[in-house]
Amino acid sequence: MFDLTFTIEDKGAGTPLTLAIDRAVIAGWTGRDPVARDKHIAELEAIGIARPASTPIYYRVAACRITMADRIEVSGGDSSGEVEFVLIGWQGRTFVGCGSDHTDRKVEAYSVTVSKQMCDKPVAPVLWELEDVIGHWDQMILRSWAVIDGARVLYQEGTLDGMLPVTDLIARGFGGKGLPDGCAMFGGTFAAKGGIRPASRFEFELEDPVLKRNISHGYDVIALPVLG
Fold first, then answer.
1. Name one Pfam family in it (predicted).
2. What's the angle, vertex CA 116, arms to CA 166 and CA 102, rounded to 5?
3. Alpha helix locations (H) across 100-207?
4. Within a 10 A sphere around the Cβ of 135, how many other Cβ atoms?
5. Which domains does the chain have, with CATH numbers?
6. Among candidates 110, 64, 50, 101, which has minimal Cα distance to 79?
7. How far is CA 152 from the centre of its chain?
8. Looking at residue 31, what is its pLDDT?
């Protein structure tokens, strides 16, 4: 278990809250539209990654992989980020944030679970109450940008109506119950525009067009040499 201090944003005001995170879950293949979901599966198959055993699927990684850092270090040049909404359970409440499921793609070709465990999972430092956005959940937008060869490009974009309903996603992963206290769950992603590829920097946001606010974060990717 380790502590992360977030700012809980409500009506323009921010309140700090320290949450003890003891479980991290990466939900994969969470698309509501089977055609769009299969597009992402095919995208991964094209780089040698096997189809999942089930859809959705809930991978476990070490909770200490979650970070608010503005830079991460990775082994070699085969990793990349994915923007996702993040849900955190705490004392009967559920908070919504935004993060990147940074993953080693080379390792992913032989073990998805191991590939996800290899990389830190950056998250933005701001959270919203789920109950404040559940009524317009499907209208919210996830976006990411990647800095590739010095150019910042739009990498992913989509509205949450492309994902399984959030209550359904939680229920499937936790036996019909709510999100456990101290559990942080990443909620799935969209296909990358132009295909999956590494970047020197990754930026992401969750936009709420109804309440006119957004959660954003970015981080540099430092590729460490692989010498043997």
1. DUF2848
2. 75
3. 105-108, 112-117, 130-133, 166-173
4. 9
5. 2-223 (3.90.850.10)
6. 101
7. 20
8. 85
The verdict on whether omega for the bond into residue 56 sits within 30 degrees of 0, i.e. cis, is yes
Q: What is the pLDDT of residue 144?
A: 98
Classify 45 as helix, strand or coil.
Answer: helix
CA distances from 21 to 52, 91, 149, 178 (A): 27, 12, 36, 16
Rounded to whole angstroms, how far apart are CA atoms 174 and 120?
24
- Residue 45: both structure tokens together: 């198959």
Write the burial class of residue 163 (CB in 10 Å: 0-12 exposed, 13-18 middle, 19+ buried). Answer: buried
Task: Confirm if 127 and 8 have CB atoms less than 8 A apart.
Answer: yes
- Token pair 């055993």 is found at 53
Residue 103 is predicted with a pLDDT of 96
The Cα 17–Cα 201 span in angstroms is 28
pLDDT (tens digit, 9 = 90+) per residue, 175-196? 888 899 999 999 999 989 999 9
Structure tokens, 76: 């070699």
DSSP 8-class letter at 191: P
Instruction: Spell out, as residue ranges, where the chain has pLDDT lower than 50.
Output: none
Three-state secondary-structure class, residue 169: helix
Q: What is the pLDDT of residue 177?
A: 85
